[in-house]
Design goal:
single chain, mainly alpha, two-stranded antiparallel ribbon, 18 helices, 67% helix, MetI-like_sf, MetI-like, cell inner membrane, cell membrane, Microcin C ABC transporter permease YejB
């Protein structure tokens, strides 16, 4: 088992490298890099997309990830030295000066010249820094990427942790109950309810909750936005717990509703497959109680497939669905951080968070295998290899 885990950890490196390489390559084809974003704002266009749509061939010429000179959108009227400084600051170029030059490196000096950094070299520099867990600073916020992630982490942890926990606490007992009463009226109407919940889009359900329970048109039982109240610091410990739970009811409900169907039906079908096997009939023939058969024999085997789905469910709830929920409920978490970084072409935040989340996802996959062995010691991944 130790050798298998070691191989899995070693596979993290090439897998993460491939993820970063593909996404780095894709960003080179997206118009409006960080330099264009700055120049578009200075030019009063708002963002690079508006400038591209109204600038014809100039927009096409300026659509690279940081290449070009006076072809940049909004570059008219700006000194070339300013653009060169932006490109150097964002890591797209470097200024080389002749030996013996003691002044400030600038293309305004005849002894200096600008050299664009090749894409592969830029990618190598970025990955070298990331392997040392040096993620740099945001282009537009003047704060380290790690500090920015830690600042937004409480919101996403709250949504992901509670949504996953509630989904498992409800779906697994419900799935077991449905398996034990397969074909009954209880099985039929609960299946209808969870399928309807799965069919409702998360953002639509979130808006419905706001309209009904957050003062939209009916009752104002829950707060409209935020993770805590304005008087959070002045509350007692119990008051803080209640206030936090009060704010989390609606967003957690909205983010959890769609995950019930998959997990409940997965649990039900897994238990049905095990209940119909020969060893269950043998255990019942020996006179064991139904609870002993169900939880002493069936549960361990049936839960394997449920545990296998844990990484995908956790990652999807933690990262995938957080953007819409955070936007609707005005929560400043990792989902909004990633979206804003993509829109603003804030590459350190974009690639830094991608590296961190990708690494977390791969590690969670390994932990899932360890949970497999913990639930059923008969599984030997080393022998399978």
């Amino acid at each position: 088992m130790g050798a298998y885990i070691l191989r899995r950890f070693l596979l993290i490196i090439p897998t993460l490298f491939g993820i970063m390489l593909i996404n780095f390559a894709l960003t080179q084809f997206v118009p409006g890099g960080p330099v264009e974003q700055v120049l578009a704002r200075l030019d009063g266009a708002g963002d690079a997309f508006q400038s591209i749509s109204g600038s014809g061939d100039a927009g096409i010429e300026a659509s690279g990830g940081g290449s070009g000179d006076n072809g940049y959108i909004g570059a008219r009227g700006l000194p070339p030295e300013f653009i060169d400084e932006l490109e150097t600051q964002f890591g797209f170029a470097r200024i080389l000066c002749e030996e013996g030059y003691t002044g400030k490196p600038s293309t305004a000096a005849p002894e200096c010249r600008k050299e664009m950094i090749p894409l592969l070299e830029r990618f190598g520099i970025m990955m070298g820094n990331y392997l040392r867990f040096d993620f740099g600073e945001s282009y537009f916020r003047s704060i380290g990427v790690v500090d920015l992630v830690l600042e937004k982490m409480p919101v996403s942890i709250s949504l992901g942790l509670w949504s996953t926990l509630i989904a498992y606490l409800i779906s697994i007992p419900l799935g077991i109950r449905k398996a034990m009463r397969d074909g009954s009226s209880f099985d039929t109407w609960t299946s209808g309810v969870i399928i309807v919940g799965y069919a409702i889009p998360g953002f639509l359900f979130a808006i419905l909750l706001l309209v009904l329970f957050a003062g939209g048109s009916y009752w104002q039982w829950f707060p409209l936005r935020g993770l805590t109240s304005d008087n959070w610091e002045g509350l007692s410990l119990w008051g803080k717990i209640v206030d936090y739970a009060w704010h989390m009811v609606l967003p957690v409900t909205a983010s959890t509703i769609s995950s019930f169907a998959t997990l409940t039906l997965l649990t039900k079908n897994s238990f049905l497959d095990e209940i119909r096997k020969q060893y269950v009939m043998t255990a019942r023939a020996k006179g064991l109680s139904e609870a002993r058969v169900l939880y002493g024999h069936v549960f361990r085997n049936a839960m394997l497939i449920v545990i296998a789905s844990f990484p995908s469910i956790f990652i999807s709830v933690f990262f995938g669905g957080s953007l819409i929920i955070e936007t609707i409920f005005s929560l400043d978490g990792l989902g909004r951080l990633g979206f804003e970084a993509a829109v603003n072409r804030d590459y350190p935040v974009l690639f830094g968070t991608l590296f961190i989340f990708g690494l977390m996802g791969l590690v969670v996959g390994i932990l899932s295998d360890l949970m497999y062995v913990w639930v059923d010691p008969r599984i030997d991944f080393e022998r399978r290899g």
